[in-house]
Design a protein that fits this description.
The chain is α/β, with parallel strands linked by helices. It has a domain at 35-140. Helices cover 24% and strands 33% of the residues. It is built from two helices and eight strands; from the N terminus they run H-E-E-E-E-E-E-E-E-H. It has helices at 5-28, 136-147; strands spanning 38-45, 56-59, 62-73, 78-86, 96-101, 108-113, 126-127, 129-131. An eight-stranded mixed β-sheet has the order 7-1-4-3-2-6-5-8, with no helix packed on it. The longest helix has 24 residues, at 5-28. It is extended. This is Phospholipid/cholesterol/gamma-HCH transport system substrate-binding protein.
Length: 152
Amino acid sequence: MSYKPTEVLVGALVLVAAVGFVLFAGQKTGFASRGSDSYPLHASFRSLDGVSVGTEVRLAGVRVGSVTDMRLNPETYRADATLSLRKSVRIPDDSAAAVASEGLLGGNFVELSPGASFDYLEPGGEIVDTQGSVSLISLLLKFVSASGGDDR
């Protein structure tokens, strides 16, 4: 069997593209951050609309981790999330977590706001101060109903 150089080159390019896609997908889903260079934190939110496993966790606009698990707590009816953060990032124990949006058409992410405590959350600790996502549709409906009430 004789292979043409063009066939070998195209095959190599397809293989490189496939490996690149797998690496990209691993980073976006948070699979790469589940190793020993990260630690878990837990947070309970009223609503996690627009957030899924793999969503970025940011501190001061910089990605420091990702969401690795989401579950509905049947006792509190809140969304419990597990955040995986880089070990190099230490979070004060009075910090807050909020679901934020990149803009009207952008995706959501979890934004951490560090507190002022000198004590830090241990691996497996819980962020108590949380704020869930805000629905753009509900805000628009509130605005429309508030401005349309008086037609004199």
